[in-house]
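Handoff note, outgoing to incoming analyst
You'll be picking up this chain. Sequence as last confirmed:
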Amino acid sequence: MGHKVEYVVKQIAGPTKAEMRLIFFDEKQCELHVVANSDPRTAWKLEEIGHAKKALAVCNGGYFNPSGDFGPSGLEIAEGTRSDKFIAGQWVGGLMVKQGKSSLVWSHEFQDATDITEFVQCSPWLVSEGRVWPVPPSKKLEPRNNRTFIMTDAEGRWAIGTCKRTGLLELAHILVTPGIISEMKVNRALNLDGGPSTGLWCRNEAGAVQFEKPGWAVRNAIMVVPRDSK
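Most recent structure output, in case you need it:
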């Protein structure tokens, strides 16, 4: 795909059967941006965002209100433009880009600042410091659904990805199981909006496109962009 970006499909066998689509990249070559849609009637599709912004890959972002004002659920900073406010919580985290440096931060680690250019908050955490982070307890059987997530090794390697037909706890265990994610050691992983919002778009150097379409318009999206694209 160029810029040392790699598109990988993994078929997970055994009791937890799932299909993962992943985009791996290095922060020395690429950076993360957030793009926001303010109106579902005029919302850009993931592939439209990718082409317009010259992105290498795009996935859907955080939670939002699809049947109301289409606003984000919590703080959103999209290419410097702010919407809503940060909502703290035990299971909450966020993708933050500050002074060109991307990180996944816990709710208690977040300190707002004017030099944060990109931010999407979401939940729950899947992996923290290389260990499965228990998802919020529920009396109901955890549904197996389509998932979108973002992860890092905290040393410059990142990935955005989707996983079909899996529970949150199942996904967390997949991410830390030795031999599955061989491209990097997952240090932190955060769940993004899933279900009908799950979507992933990417293109290679030849222009060939891989696309997993969301089931509806999404409020925001996370882009992987070459650092030399400006």
